[in-house]
Amino acid sequence: MRAEPAEWWRDAVIYQVYPRSFADGDGDGIGDLTGVRNRLPYLAELGVDALWFSPWYASPQADAGYDVADYRHIDPAFGTLEQAEALITEAHALGLKIIVDVVPNHVSDQHAWFQEAIAAGPGAEARDLFWFRPGRGPGGERPPNDWQSVFGGPAWTRTANPDGTPGEWYLHLFAPQQPDLNWNNSKVREEHESILRFWFDRGADGVRIDSATMPAKDPDLPDFDPDAPPVPHPYIDRDAVHGIYRSWRSLADSYPQPRALIGEVWLADPERFAAYLRPDEMHTAFNFDYLNCPWDAAALRRVIDATLDAHASVGAAASWVLSNHDVTRHVTRYGRTDTSFGLSLRQHKAPTDLELGTRRARAALLLDLALPGGCYLYQGEELGLWEVEDIPAELRQDPIFHRTGGGDIGRDGCRVPLPWSGVHAPFGFSPEGASASPWLPQPEQWAAYTAQAQDGRPDSMLTFYRTALGLRRGERGLRGAGFGWLPGTPSGVLAFVRGDGFVCMTNLSGTAVPLPTNADVVLASDPGLDPGAGGLPVDTTVWLRKR
Known about the structure:
Layout: E1 13-17, H1 19-22, H2 33-46, E2 50-53, E3 57-58, E4 70-74, H3 81-93, E5 97-102, H4 112-120, E6 132-133, E7 156-160, E8 166-171, H5 186-201, E9 206-209, H6 241-253, E10 260-263, H7 270-275, E11 284-285, H8 288-292, H9 297-312, E12 319-321, H10 330-333, H11 354-370, E13 374-378, H12 399-403, H13 451-454, H14 461-474, E14 484-485, E15 493-498, E16 502-507, E17 519-524, E18 540-546
Parallel strand pairs: 1-2, 1-13, 2-5, 5-9, 9-10, 10-11, 12-13
Antiparallel strand pairs: 3-4, 6-8, 7-8, 14-15, 15-16, 16-18, 17-18
């Protein structure tokens, strides 16, 4: 086992585990901690450094666990606190660090605080933990303002008073089952710091912070035009939010081995983004500009340059990510005419060339892994899985689908349970003889994409990931921040050097391009690459070492 640097997150490869869809250990059709524990050796062999778990806490599961009812208990569908503690211990023994999810913007409507607030009625101290307000109009029948939910529809739901009469409204920027917390209340701050200590004391090596730009609100709750929002925004990226993370950083740094803070920061402004990564705030954050970027050399180069510049300005490590539990899988995106992504640009059922998308996905992995900083992988991408877009409406569970009346198909397609073995569903996701089907249906075509089917095949995506991750871990040239674009590169090609003579070259042009004559191939995304026959093909990345 290799020695871990104190700032391990700076160049770590972090694998996202979406527990509900990773592996089912008890046969109920839902992934759980037993399933994950059984597959820990697979993850260690893959070659990742850390595992990030989407929420595994007690929850009604109105939004797949991002509606947390109790951070100090594991949801029964996933297991127990004792099993989570054992998982952390077992992962550490395999050299894998553990990152847990924290959702500071909101909790579940079944959380004890919210239940107390509802029962207490208007004016109660318990209601100050949330954003309760009287409605507008003669009978208070209209919401307090015109804010809209991220999931569609109004961001307000009306309550009933204890006597049954119509009552106040409460704010929820996501689903109605996810009431927003009031971070002006010191009890909210104290509770979240206690939650961090609870998991850090149990061995968690860091936290991923969901919707990190949104906890602070304008206390006046003003109306605004979403097409021309004011500056500062009423609830996104307000300056007050930085005080939360400075406090969390102080807590994280108080441990003998400091814990990492990793932010979900959706911001277009590089300077505002970098402010979250100042030395006394978060350690790193997801690079959504890179994820959203089309498969285009000029666009990617602009994003890479802007990313490295923004992070260098605050001394933070960059990160690179292609997929997660909220976005269309990149094998699908890269097989479309428009290869970009946006939360309002899901392009469901757009024509997709999966062979092309897979070729580009392989090239994108080597590009990601060669860039300075950390890299995030989403479960199943190492198997080459694509977005499942033909899930029947009656089986869809994402609140986005239901809140928009099907206008936005939502995120179920990237959350379909993983295929592990066998030739028919559930493909080893559940144990043999399980009584329940997987919670979302798996495509029959995945029989050729199971981990078992790909294991040991030289040309498989799984073998490719294992090889690339192993080489990255042992390549000295890929450590540190050293980076420089190679001059004289043909149009449509990205080529850069890391360290002492390590070169990454990606061809996004319309034709093959010559390879350097003074370098040897280390690894290519095209398993059939012949360096002496026609150069570097289109949609291919190669790692080279100068002689």
